[in-house]
Amino acid sequence: MRRLWISSLGTMSVAEKRAIRRAKARAFVLAAQGNLRAETLAENFLKALPKIRRLVEKEKPPFVAKVSRRGDVNLLQF
User: Fold this and answer.
1) How far apart are CA 51 and CA 9, in angstroms?
2) Residue 46 and residue 77: Cα distance in Å, rounded?
């Protein structure tokens, strides 16, 4: 079973990072500066979906990746 977490939160707590590692999850953080509407966050996610799919197929979990407004997807150190 694949585990995929999506968050719009900026900074992850130690407990969240530990949970991602323990669950061997693939986590994606939607980058946002200021207050973006849910509709805008969803549009950014959909724009990045092809890159997200490639990353899920390429990288073994656990990992955390950032999804930018432009639709870029970059692995984060965690």
Assistant:
1) 20
2) 23
Six token digits for residue 4: 């995929």
What is the pLDDT, as a whole number, of residue 73? Answer: 96
Q: What is the pLDDT of residues 1-55, one digit of tens each?
A: 566 566 655 677 888 889 999 999 998 888 877 777 888 888 888 999 999 999 9
CA distances from 56 to 22, 34, 39, 42, 63 (A): 18, 28, 24, 19, 9
Q: How far apart are CA 78 and CA 76, in angstroms?
A: 6
Task: State residue 75's pLDDT score.
Answer: 95
CB atoms within 10 A of CB 44: 20
Name the strand (E) or helix (H) holding 30. Answer: strand 26-30
